[in-house]
Amino acid sequence: MFQFTHIDGYHKALKSGTTTCEAAVNHYLECIQANQHLNAFTEVYESEALVTARALDNRRNNEEKTGRLHGVVIAIKDVICYKGHKVTAASGILKDFTSLYTATALQYLIDEEAIIIGSCNCDEFAMGSSNESSVYGPVKNALDESRVPGGSSGGSAVAVQAGMCMYSLGSDTGGSVRQPADFCGIIGFKPSYGSISRYGLVAYASSFDQIGIFGKHLNDVRLLWEIMSLPDDKDSTMNHLPPKQTPSSPAKKKLAIFAEALNHPGLDEEIKISLENFIEKLRAAGHTITEIPFRLFDYIVPSYYVLTTAEASSNLSRYDGIRFGKAEEEKEDLALFYSKNRSAGFGTEVKRRIMLGCFVLSTGYYDAYFAKAQQIRQLIVSQMAEILHEYDGVILPVSPATAFKFGEKSDPVSAYLADIYTVLANLAGLPAIALPMFSHSNNMPYGVQVMSKRGDEVTLLETSEVLLAVSAG
Ligand code: GLN
Question: How many C-beta neighbours within 10 Å does residue 270 have?
Fold first, then answer.
């Protein structure tokens, strides 16, 4: 029986001949088959993955130098373009659309000999927190099938959670990697804005979107990030700096926690207590944790939803049923033709956000909403930069509660408010990670979120290692 713990161990087993890439792929295909009811995949590249695996096995047996991700089995969210494969963003409007090119980040993984096993279900256009707004239907949490896996990258999270691949990619505009990772009990890492090329990532809100990684092993997550964070001329918003290799920061960490985050009325009492106990444990281990105020806390969610819906309304205007998606029967009137295509192609949540975005950008409301939200974003960016100049990181919960039941958050405002802890990192472009640590009395997992200075993933990942060790100790 094939077993996977981390890439290093897998590579050793390949080298010693105790396993093959083909055996790995067969194992994951069987697991995907056995877990079909979880609805995590929108498409499985079965024969293609097997062909790649056999080719890699042959090449390795011929003693050729192997790539850093040789035979590593990876699933991708259905918003990442892969040439010749369908990319639909779980939307009716992109039904049967085939990618014309491959996303740079994905190409970097393939260049290191990763095997791409399939694409994963998600909320339509990555808008949501429960994976309930997919045209393919919801994804189920493998730990409790009456509960959501989180979203929007719910399929990618469950693919790793239930062992249907080794690693997976998601996208994180406001928490879509960290929150589902938290709900599923795995690691979810969102690098800084501009750290990984967005070329080939279906756009939701372009100044927030970032590709992120799901996995169970921190060092491997770091390796995938290092590989994907190479420069790309096709994305002008990338930080063209090499990944910052700060010399190992001091073993004792200096961390901040926001009083408003810990004392937030929506925070589950058990999560709050675990976090407080964990802080005490960190202090006992010699780390400094300081509670500080963050006065902009109440403005985080409103400014996120004003800005992202504005950007989404612009980004999604390209889906007109002509260049993308299925056209409705309407030949007489052009405006009606667009309207029919878009009405039939988009789901409720996406329509809501397009309308909200158009509203906040419209004459008369622009200054009151969009311009104000931009000003708040700027304040958040500078305050976070000041704080992170002084501290190695800020720790926060990931979500105010554990994975909820299907249908429980059908009111959009309550769903939006639950993004309180994750959207901050996207507003400020900071790297942030969800680390699994605890189990709730309802048996669902949850953990701790850490964020660091923009561009300083190395400090973030080093700090994460320390936190995981303290939590396990
Ligand atoms: N839940 C957030 C939203 O609905 C985050 C989505 C995301 O990160 N893609 O916008």
Answer: 15
pTM confidence score: 0.97
Atom of ligand 1 nearest to the CA of 129: 1
Phi–psi pair at 395, nearest 5 degrees: -105, 145
Ligand 1 pocket by Cβ (under 6 Å): 126-129, 152, 171-176, 204, 308, 419
**What pLDDT, in 10s, does the model give residues 103-125?**
999 999 999 999 999 999 999 99
Local confidence band at 240 (pLDDT 50, 70, 90 cut-offs): low
Which residues, at least 6 apart from 336, have a Cβ–Cβ distance to it below 8 Å? Answer: 330
Bond preceding residue 152 cis, omega within 30 of 0: yes
Which amino acid is residue 376, in one-letter code?
I
d(CA 403, CA 80): 25
- Chain-centre distance for alpha carbon 131: 13
Structure tokens given for 171: 């996208």
Residue 79 CA to residue 76 CA, distance in Å, equals 8
Which residues are the active-site residues? Answer: 77, 152, 176
Nearest alpha carbon, ligand 1 atom 5:
174
Collapsed DSSP state (helix, strand, coil) of residue 257: strand
Q: Say how far residue 169 (Cα) sits from the centre of its chain.
A: 7
Name the nearest CA neighbour of 168 among 212, 131, 130: 212
